[in-house]
Amino acid sequence: MADEPGWWDVGEERKSKSQLKREHHDIKDLGAELLGLSDRMLRQLGLSEAALDGIATARRLKHGALQRQLRHLANILESEDDPARIRADLERMRKPTQDDIRALHQLERWRDALIAGDESCLAEIAARAPGFDRELVRELAAAARQDRAAARPPKSARRLYAYLRQL
User: Fold this and answer.
1) Whole-model pTM above 0.85?
2) In sequence order, which ranges of the chain are alpha helices (DSSP H)?
């Protein structure tokens, strides 16, 4: 009789109480991590309204009340949202993509070439950003060369990079 399966044996393997606590603490930590995100990032995560309300409330609280709210937020995240999906989306948002890295490296190459006096990259910049100001780029590159020659901080080089990045 003890070897016969009962209603409690049907389905997935039961988790220990310790495992359930660990999972709940992980979700609570995720909730605490979500508190530090901007509203724009929270909207990109696609959280439920209840979770967004819980985060907004938790941001106003301190100490014990904050801990209670984080436990409540963990319950909301567990029941209404998928914590694994949220974690994956959060990681994806935090890691720059390979395309972003390549684009930044291209900007650095253009800046370095312009500072070195090579204006052949202006045509390539014009192809990607037709409305850019050639004269401003030339002025910033010349100022960056002067900064480098005078051993001053690379203020103009930073301005040139910022302008190229803005394009």
Assistant:
1) no
2) 17-35, 39-45, 49-59, 63-80, 83-94, 98-116, 121-128, 134-149, 155-166
Contact 132, 167 (CB under 8 A): yes
CA atoms within 13 A on the CB side of 51: 25
Domains of the chain in start order, with CATH, are 15-94 (1.10.60), 98-166 (1.10.60.30)
Whole-number Å distance between alpha carbons of 119 and 64: 61
**Phi–psi pair at 111, nearest 5 degrees:** -60, -50
Q: Take residue 114 and report the two structure tokens written for it.
A: 């312009």
CB atoms within 10 A of CB 156: 20
**Residue 9 DSSP SS3:** helix
Name the least confident of 5-14, 24-33, 40-49, 153-162. 5-14
> For residue 12, is pLDDT > 80?
no
